[in-house]
Amino acid sequence: MRGFSRRLLAVGAAVLVAVTAAPATAQAHQRKQYVKVGYFTQWGIYGRDFQLAKVQQSGAAAGLTHINYAFGPVTAAGVCDSADSWADWSVPFSDANSVDGVGDVAGQPIAGNLNQLAELKAANPKLRVLISLGGWTGSAYFSDAALTDASRKKLVGSCVDLWIKGNLPGLAAGVAAGIFDGIDLDWEWPGSEGNAGNVIRPQDRQNFTLLAAEFRRQLDSLSRTTKRRYELTAFLPAAPAKIDAGFEAKKIFKYLDFGTVQGYDFHGSWESRTNQQSALRVPAGAPDNPDFSVEVAIDTWRHRGAPGGKLVLGIPYYGQGWTGATGGGNGLFATVTGGAPGRFAVGTEDYKTLKTLPAQGFKLHRDWRSGHSWLFDGTTFWTYDDPAQVLQKTAYIRGEGLGGAMMWSLDGDDERASLTRTISAGLWTPGR
């Protein structure tokens, strides 16, 4: 650990631990390794021009323990499928865009992102890669697939066959075997509203547990043949109402290696006033009561029976923004006219872009006690996490004895992987 990481820790660690004000625990001191999970988006290779080669070249891969490949949908037929087989296993990458520096050639057994994941693992032997199932637009039929014992067996069997055994349609049997080391369940959300049109049932809460149990059973069965252990994780909501509607917190961690808790989107441009999207604690003067924060989310999971050491905090690599703010001051909790313009969507922007705004007239504001930061130029407001804020969150993770950090998503970081390097430094453990 040297260079960027050592300097950052030397400047900030003591102060940030103090303002986080969470008690250190024996579990935190004894932890051998924190998980550091980065999501890589399948579609990022297109408009965002973000390939897995950049994860390697930036140094991000060296700072991760896991990559979650997003997403594999669950179909109306109740099976796993590819959302984009061209991106997954067909698109050829050039020398410059290949992890190993050697471009794809016609006739090779497999190409696409999956082949690049294999190359990334070869370059980083300790890195684990999981396929994330569902996501915001791929969770419509989870409820149907999880409804009965037969439908659960059907879904899990298809997911294991496609992604773990690597039997990709149109290619040689087992061509992708060994690329994925497990499965991440991103059902958004069991028992409560997600994307428009999702099937939702009250039984989803119990059926999520049964589905996790079936995944664990089939993965363990395969392990007895391959002599490899496969991980099972889940993406979990922050809102207490969604936690209660969809998850048996005391039961699911019997089957999960860990769960990543959504530590962002607490507020956003769908609302009519500026606010924080990822604060550690509810800020003083917040207009909503009750309100959302990292502390609220983590405490809710713990109070429902989830083990803290298996809770992994999600950290955003993007910001939420508004424009047309009125009222002056520092812009926080101001009335607005709408979402701020973003490159890919109104109201959101990548960290790598937001970091340049102070040079364009935006003032950086921080609330260390509440653990959030924002940018404001008198009209436009962005709530986001920068390296200093991320470092404070790693202090919180350590102090609370959590399992580690998750990042959504790697393509939002800058070319030096500043956020990922900060997380890796903040969760560094001597001897690891």
TrEMBL record:
The organism is: Actinoplanes digitatis
For this UniProt record, give its keywords in alphabetical order, as a comma-separated list: Carbohydrate metabolism, Chitin degradation, Glycosidase, Hydrolase, Polysaccharide degradation, Signal
Any one Pfam family here would be: Glyco_hydro_18
Please give the catalytic activity noted in the UniProt record.
Random endo-hydrolysis of N-acetyl-beta-D-glucosaminide (1->4)-beta-linkages in chitin and chitodextrins
**Domain GH18, residue spans:** 34-430
Under CDD domains, the record lists: GH18_chitinase
Please spell out the taxonomic lineage of the organism that makes this protein.
Answer: Bacteria, Bacillati, Actinomycetota, Actinomycetes, Micromonosporales
EC number from the UniProt entry: 3.2.1.14
The protein in question is named chitinase
Say which domain of life the source belongs to.
Bacteria
Q: Does the keyword Lyase apply?
A: no
Extract the InterPro entries matched here. Chitinase_II/V-like_cat, Chitinase_insertion_sf, GH, Glyco_hydro18_cat, Glyco_hydro_18_chit_AS, Glycosyl_Hydrlase_18
Q: Which residues form the signal peptide?
A: 1-28
- Keyword DNA-binding set for record: no
Class of enzymatic activity (EC top level): hydrolase
GO terms for biological process, alphabetical = carbohydrate metabolic process; chitin catabolic process
Which molecular function terms from Gene Ontology are attached? chitin binding; endochitinase activity
Record's family?
Answer: Belongs to the glycosyl hydrolase 18 family.
